[in-house]
Amino acid sequence: MNKQLFRVKDLGQVDRSKPLRFKFDGKFFVGYRGDTLASALLANGIHLVGRSFKYHRPRGILSAGAEEPNALVQVGEGNGTDPNTRATQIKLEDGLIVKSQNRWPSLLLDLGYINNLLHRLLPAGFYYKTFMWPSSWWMRYEYWIRRIAGLGEAPKGADPDRYEKTHAHCDVLIVGGGPAGLSAALAAGKTGARVVLVDEQDSFGGSLNSNTDCTVDEHTTLDWRKRTLAILEGMPEVILLNRTVATGYYDHNFLTLLETVSPGQQNQSEYKTRQRLWKIRAKRVVLATGALERPLVFKDNDRPGIMLSASMRAYLNQYGVSPGNRVLLFTNNDDAYRTAISLKENNIPIAGIVDLREDPTGELVDRIRHEGIALYPGYAIVSTTGHLRIKSVRIMKLNDDGTKVIGNAKDITCDCIGMSGGWNPTVHLFSQSGGKLEWDDKFERFLPKIANQPLISIGACNGTQSLSDCLKDGLKAGAESARATNNKGRAPGTPRVVESKCNDERAIWIIPRENSYKKNGKYFVDFQNDVTASDISLAAREGYRSVEHLKRYTTMGMGTDQGKTSNVTALAILGETLGTTAPNIGHTTFRPPYTPATIGAYAGRNVGALFDPIRTTAMHEHHEEFGAKFEHVSQWMRAWYYPKPNETMQQTINREVKAARDSIGLLDASTLGKIDIKGLDAAEFLNRIYTNSWLKLAPGKARYGLMLKEDGMVMDDGVTTHLNSNHYHMTTTTGGAASVLDWLEEWHQTEWPDLDVYFTSVTEHWAVASICGPNCRSLLAELAPELDLSDEAFPFMTVKEGDVAGIAARIFRISFTGELSFEINVPRRYGLALWQALIEKGEKYDICPYGTEAMHVLRAEKGFIIVGQETDGTVTPHDLGMDWIVSKTKHDFIGKRALSRSDMLKSDRKQLVGLLNENENEVIPEGSQIVEMLQPSPPMAMIGHITSSYYSPNCNRSIAMALIKGGKARIGKTLHIPLKNKTIKVKVTDTLFLDKNKELTDG
Amino acid sequence: MLYIECPWCGFRDDEEFHYGGEAHIQRPTDPNELNDEEFSEYLYLKSNPKGVILERWLHSRGCRRWFNVLRNTVTNEITEIYPIDTLPNSKEGTEYYGQNWRRKSSVEKTIKPREYK
Known about the structure:
The complex is a heterodimer of chains A (1003) and B (117).
Chain A: E1 15-24, E2 27-33, H1 37-43, E3 48-51, E4 58-60, E5 72-75, E6 82-86, E7 96-100, H2 114-117, H3 126-130, H4 138-148, E8 162-175, H5 179-190, E9 195-198, E10 215-216, E11 219-220, H6 221-233, E12 238-241, E13 244-250, E14 254-260, E15 273-287, E16 291-293, E17 306-308, H7 309-319, E18 327-331, H8 335-345, E19 350-355, H9 363-371, E20 375-377, E21 379-385, E22 392-398, E23 405-413, E24 416-420, E25 423-425, H10 428-432, E26 436-440, E27 445-450, E28 455-457, H11 467-484, E29 497-498, E30 524-526, E31 531-532, H12 533-541, H13 547-554, H14 567-577, H15 582-585, H16 599-603, H17 620-625, E32 629-633, E33 636-641, H18 649-662, E34 665-668, E35 673-678, H19 682-689, E36 702-708, E37 714-724, E38 727-732, H20 737-750, E39 758-761, E40 766-772, H21 776-783, E41 799-804, E42 807-812, E43 821-827, H22 831-842, E44 848-849, H23 852-861, E45 910-917, E46 929-931, E47 942-952, E48 957-965, E49 974-978, E50 983-989
Parallel strand pairs in A: 1-7, 8-9, 8-15, 9-12, 15-28, 17-24, 18-19, 18-24, 19-20, 34-44
Antiparallel strand pairs in A: 1-2, 3-4, 5-6, 5-7, 10-11, 10-29, 13-14, 14-15, 16-25, 21-22, 22-23, 26-27, 30-31, 32-33, 34-40, 35-38, 35-39, 36-37, 37-38, 40-43, 41-42, 42-43, 45-48, 45-50, 46-47, 47-48, 49-50
Helix pairs in contact in A: 5-6, 5-11, 7-8, 8-9, 12-14, 18-23, 21-22
Chain B: E1 3-6, E2 10-13, E3 18-22, H1 36-44, E4 52-58, E5 66-72, E6 78-83, H2 91-99, H3 106-109
Antiparallel strand pairs in B: 1-2, 3-4, 4-5, 5-6
């Protein structure tokens, strides 16, 4: 059913040999290749495409570009669906499925339209005024507000489409492929410079596609465009990117470009990329972003069929689509006359031109008069009729200063209006780049003034109006930018342009009312957010005088279009209300992205398994075989616990924890950070970094150390070993490895460059198996027969080198469990072999691999802290009860001075204590808040929180550690932990739960 | 996104770097000599100028070296990059360094001046 009743014969650039079928709201339609969704709908006579955000008023297609506030549709189905997409920027594809939004049950009959009748109850700031109380009802309000005031629907599941990211550098990046951008690319490209030219539309050319009433060097604008593109395509250093929006302009000429590679092709092929995000660094940028036409603000100016005049011309000349059967033009400048001439040339009936100007002159006006088209100079539209489509307008004469309408009204029937309220240069990217704007009084607009980065604005976005000036400026800017990037060449000669001259405009921001006492009807400024002129005045009267406040209060300039058609008009109206002018009001901040961007494009391929790198140890394969459950510790996958069949997690942990104290436990400790430290001043350096003393540590000996930040707070801990003269092996927490290395480097490079010391990360070089428990010495003796493992020969806190299972190893006798323990370090590639040897030989001792959860329980039984669990950046060694590790004799170390600041000496600081639940079998949830005085309901004064909490099979009860205000003084007291459904009673103790007599002192 | 010229590796995107805060805050020679207020000044008080600032950067995903940068906080323009253990050379950098409030502070008077190369 290829009707397309509004397609004009033999006009435009769509390919009529390629009909494309698409579905809109369940009905099939046909358009042509080269159409946008909007042009295809218009060709089928469809103007009504959506309902407005707040009042649910019927809305039509307003524009033909990125500024579109009304024609927002839901594209595609399923999880690949894309809501709030501008119909004006969707390239028509065969099989495209599109739905209108914000209507129920249908576009023609929308029950939400009742909001329009209730509009007196819905003034600016309505939500803020109405839904303030009772506060407990907010959740209920929100549900309904979201249902009624909404746009499209977000997909529920993960996006199935593929997105890519790419990085590029270029000499000259040109944004906008209209006449100025194309000529800039031509001039820059001729020098051999690396040029990237982007345009958001499917076809390059911009206004050349629709302003077909000019000639360039005796060619039609379309021919010139075609020739220029052919030349550019032949230049190997020029990249042309169509359907690509420059979304953001950041520092140092870094821009993001969002390229739509295959629109509407969602789900079709998993190998097909939907969008590509270009991150591009340009030496020079040329902004040729054009200008956006302003709507006029008159009574009920939002009816379907009312559109922007130049957009109407674009639909006609570029897509061969007639906007209607009887077109009225309403303008304050000459541009609408060009639309009228195009319509006339294609025999589309014109109801007339209503011009705000008293006495329009010039060649365009003369031509209109000559053609016999009805012209109403000094008139304005005072009202409109038509519910789902404009039917008629009433016009009246304006008085001299444009504040009133006078005389007799005249009614004109029409089914379409092309309006033009002047032009706003598209200064978004310029402003994002940090450039300063300046108000131009003559045409009432903001223009680029002072650039903050190496860029040039040219063409309409710089206020240039005539085609010949755009081409001239483009050539000049292209050549200059290329020269600035060390490319040589001159700009080509400026082409001869034949065009009509456009004259001044008359700005009347709000068209006066017919009857000043009758206040019905709406004067829309921001179509997308349903913000009217009276909303803006009301907000100003209520005190929202700053433009940023106005924006947030009325929602003017928010939404997917970010006020592209409305911002300047709104500023001018605010200025009029406040008795000042737009330049004194200023403008809201332009922020990226320029048009809405898919989050998927920013994520690119960094989703799912590729979201973050995963690090595994040399023994990982074995853990997997053993059925280990894993947990992520920073980027590492660590074995969490090794469940046997039919075991609960708690049963597994209990078994592992018992085994480590009863026979042998085996832990993969490879993930601990390891830093190799060498140099004549290594000991001196450690002495400055750690809180305890390091100058007299003999070779072969190890020492536990605590690192503080300069503010005295615990930063990291670990054992550092003096391997041999001036050679140390430092270990850090798993999560702290990188930051500790940075920390050491920072102090060395920035404060003590005179110290002779070198740091190398060796975390990945060593695989570490830690064995602990009463039988671990016998096991190690079997695997390392040549080593003397006796207490005398190999005491606690020492290191030995020797073969273990035939592998050259470093063995540290250190312990994180309180048990006799050896940490066997071998080169990574032998890690698995070592592990397997330990398992094999350990079988007779029932060797039990244990995971990180059991490790946590084992260390907690002994009251050992974990940095990051017991500490959070606000905890000092004294808070942890670790005064013993802070040297009293050392004159200085990092963090020492801060420990004696007055705040550090307060007795009510949070201190680490142990807690015992009255119910021995119950484990308190970690993070629970602790109170002293229990109240029947919140609020209650919280005095601390649980940092670690486990069931300890060795203590036969639950144990916990907590940071509590003045905790040490509370030992022996009872405190309370109020949970959602019950309260736990706890007794405060010290943090040593097992081995109270310290018999396991050797670790 | 800033484009920073590492003195060792050349121009790189700022995602390769870590910001290191204000430059030329030397650690007191003997922090024990400072009273609480003075020590807090060293520890917490940072310059927050509109315009020129001297700051430290670390090429953390590159050569791992620290260096100093003269940046304009309004425009983000970087006009000088110099080694970590030197003072700025440019006129505006030298001026800013000399006029910075820290030069007059009692804390800095207790510091044995760094021997800048």
